[in-house]
């Protein structure tokens, strides 16, 4: 039995609303909700404040405490997601067993897709750095320094979560002037020698750093980049993970069908040697072998036939002209 809901539209308005929620070629920016549990710490509140500032303007901050435990009960998250049209959550918690705890959650179709739990073991806020800050709404450049982000399942999930939260959809080109103001650098150390794959204990910390970018003259067209730490500086410990259901993940990764006209105009898979010019006309290239014109057969065409009588008469006229000259 499928876990996903199937809604049949009752009228045209509902049909349009459902169509907007279908997979898009270019998805819109995801909204994140920052919510606190019943018990939090000053460190958790300050970390969430800075993460919220980095996510603005696509972020909603809940100022009140909520009796919420994501790994035990997801009903509250699903309610907040549907009410605010948000698909990302950061939940701040604190307990003796899991101090200074952050739970990152992704939603799909109004339900929890997967969750990631990180513990804050080191923190330095934006206010502690005497440096310029980036503008609101500017997308950061994200860099991941470790092979674990491509090989280890938990670190692959961390990379996926952080890209969803702060990078959005990928861009092919970024203008240097005004296009990049800050860089988020995520680093992880190597696995310890006593690492146990079954328990995943003693995993290396994840170091979250943010730098502002300053362009300097380099004597060429490409300027020199200078990085200045602007904060926050956070050291995360990797804790619990709840993987996505296979069926839900398959639906979440589903891509929409692209119309033939969009494919030909460049939105879909590019066809070899077929382009669309500025006027909207389709232009193609054909590659053929060089044709030998000396072997071309032309006698069968009536217009190309040369009769012997006509050719001999033409030759006699030419001789008479030559004699007169």
TrEMBL record:
<feature type="domain" description="Brix">
    <location>
        <begin position="30"/>
        <end position="247"/>
    </location>
</feature>
<dbReference type="InterPro" id="IPR007109">
    <property type="entry name" value="Brix"/>
</dbReference>
<feature type="compositionally biased region" description="Basic and acidic residues">
    <location>
        <begin position="273"/>
        <end position="293"/>
    </location>
</feature>
<dbReference type="Pfam" id="PF04427">
    <property type="entry name" value="Brix"/>
</dbReference>
<feature type="compositionally biased region" description="Basic residues">
    <location>
        <begin position="297"/>
        <end position="308"/>
    </location>
</feature>
<dbReference type="GO" id="GO:0005730">
    <property type="term" value="C:nucleolus"/>
</dbReference>
<protein>
    <recommendedName>
        <fullName>Ribosome production factor 2 homolog</fullName>
    </recommendedName>
</protein>
<dbReference type="GO" id="GO:0000027">
    <property type="term" value="P:ribosomal large subunit assembly"/>
</dbReference>
<dbReference type="GO" id="GO:0000463">
    <property type="term" value="P:maturation of LSU-rRNA from tricistronic rRNA transcript (SSU-rRNA, 5.8S rRNA, LSU-rRNA)"/>
</dbReference>
<comment type="similarity">
    <text>Belongs to the RPF2 family.</text>
</comment>
<keyword id="KW-0539">Nucleus</keyword>
<dbReference type="GO" id="GO:0019843">
    <property type="term" value="F:rRNA binding"/>
</dbReference>
<feature type="region of interest" description="Disordered">
    <location>
        <begin position="263"/>
        <end position="325"/>
    </location>
</feature>
<dbReference type="InterPro" id="IPR039770">
    <property type="entry name" value="Rpf2"/>
</dbReference>
């Amino acid at each position: 039995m499928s876990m996903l809901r199937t809604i049949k539209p009752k009228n045209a308005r509902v049909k349009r609303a459902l169509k907007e929620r279908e997979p898009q070629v270019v998805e819109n920016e995801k909204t994140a909700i920052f919510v606190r549990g019943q018990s939090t710490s000053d460190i958790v509140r300050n970390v969430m404040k800075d993460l919220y500032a980095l996510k603005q303007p696509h972020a909603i901050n809940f100022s009140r405490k909520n009796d919420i435990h994501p790994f035990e009960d997801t009903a509250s998250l699903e309610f907040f997601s549907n009410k605010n049209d948000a698909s990302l959550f950061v939940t701040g918690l604190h307990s003796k067993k899991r101090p200074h705890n952050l739970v990152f959650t992704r939603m799909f179709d109004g339900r929890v897709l997967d969750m990631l739990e990180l513990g804050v073991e080191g923190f330095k806020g934006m206010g502690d750095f005497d440096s310029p800050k980036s503008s609101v709404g500017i997308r950061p450049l994200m860099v991941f320094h470790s092979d674990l982000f491509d090989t280890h399942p938990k670190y692959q999930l961390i990379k996926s979560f952080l890209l969803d939260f702060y990078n959005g959809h990928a861009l092919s080109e970024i203008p240097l002037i005004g296009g990049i103001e800050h860089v988020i650098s995520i680093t992880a150390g190597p696995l310890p020698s006593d690492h146990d794959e079954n328990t995943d204990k003693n995993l290396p910390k994840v170091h979250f750093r943010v730098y502002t970018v300053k362009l300097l003259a380099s004597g060429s067209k490409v300027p020199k980049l200078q990085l200045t730490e602007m904060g926050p500086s956070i050291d995360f410990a990797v804790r619990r993970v709840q993987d996505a259901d296979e069926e839900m993940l398959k639906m979440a990764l589903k891509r929409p069908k692209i119309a033939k006209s969009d494919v030909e105009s460049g939105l879909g898979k590019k066809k070899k040697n077929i382009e669309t010019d500025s006027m909207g006309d389709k232009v193609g290239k054909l590659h053929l072998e060089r044709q030998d014109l000396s072997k071309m057969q032309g006698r069968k065409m009536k217009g190309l036939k040369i009769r012997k009588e006509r050719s001999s008469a033409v030759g006699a006229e030419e001789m008479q002209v030559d004699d007169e000259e």
